[in-house]
Amino acid sequence: MDSNLPETTIVNPALKQNPPANNNKVKIFLIIGGVILLLVLTGMGAYFFVKTKQQPQPQPVPTPTPTPQIQQGAKFFLQADPVEVSVGGQIRLTAFVKSDLDAANLFIAKLKFANTLLQAKNISLRSESTSSGFIKDWFISNWVENTIDNNSGSVSLVGGVPNPGFQSPVESSGSAMADVIFEAKAPGDAIISFDDTSAVYRNSDNANILTGKQGIAIKIIAEASPSAAITPTVTLAPTITPTASPTPSGPLEGDVNQDSKVDLQDLSALLSLWGKKGSEGAKADLNSDGVVNVFDYSKLVSLLKQVQMVK
């Protein structure tokens, strides 16, 4: 063989190494799988993010504002028939009390009115037939004072109900205490109201439970109009004279609640002890006969007149 000829290398095709045919498929699969996994993870992250945002955050519990307690007690109010009248006409004024939460034993209604426009004629205290046929039944059983003073324009109604006292029915609008008959003197708007010395004393502890007072306005016109005059029926409470009895011992006669003074609160305390005997009612047994009754009541009213608490 000629040594000058170029050397020829013979390659065996069977020995040539080519990459596997499915390498590209594997890469594509891995890429697609990675994308899918990324999308799944992204979606889960978004879901949990939204879920967390939607969950209500704990709110601080507000401190409740205490509801103010409305004081409940007794109330005085007035009704008039009619509420408009001509000069010379008459008005029937009824004093009512509403005390349905607590039983009370002493009722003090002090009325004031314009004496230039009105004149009080008389007071009706007991049951009677009205023009409508309705029978009024006054609840006061023991009257202390029922007076009229046209010079000062005032009416005083003070009455008691012995233990257990009086409590107006819950379903009622109020209970009538007394009627006052007025006559119109001059045209104008006449106001009738309760003054600040009015009171209602609770039977259980003799505390003043009056929390409301509602007056009324009467319109008086100059033109005369025919109207039937009201014929009042006046029945005064009986005056009971106590039997002579020894003066009870104690620092101050009539000071039933022992506060070193004699006033209407002592009368309420006496009414709370009504019917009590022996030592149980000793503080109110003013005539020392062993029982609290009408004689002690009458004696205390007399003492109240002496100190000018009542007339």
Structural notes for this entry:
- The chain is of the alpha+beta class and 311 residues long.
- It folds into 2 domains: 74-221, Immunoglobulin-like, CATH 2.60.40.680; 238-311, Dockerin domain (Type 1 dockerin domain, Orthogonal Bundle).
- It has helices at 23-54, 264-272, 294-306; strands at residues 74-81, 84-86, 90-98, 104-113, 118-124, 128-129, 135-136, 142-149, 154-160, 175-184, 188-194, 199-202, 210-214, 216-221.
- Strands 2, 4, 8, 9, 11, 12 and 14 form a 7-stranded mixed sheet that branches. Strands 5-10-3-1-13 form a 5-stranded mixed sheet, with no helix packed on it.
- Helix 2 (264-272) runs antiparallel to helix 3 (294-306).
- Residues 242-246 have low confidence and may be disordered.
Question: Could you write a compact summary of the structure shown?
Answer:
The chain contains three helices and 14 strands. It has helices spanning 23-54, 264-272, 294-306; strands at 74-81, 84-86, 90-98, 104-113, 118-124, 128-129, 135-136, 142-149, 154-160, 175-184, 188-194, 199-202, 210-214, 216-221. A hairpin with a 5-residue loop joins strand 6 (128-129) and strand 7 (135-136).
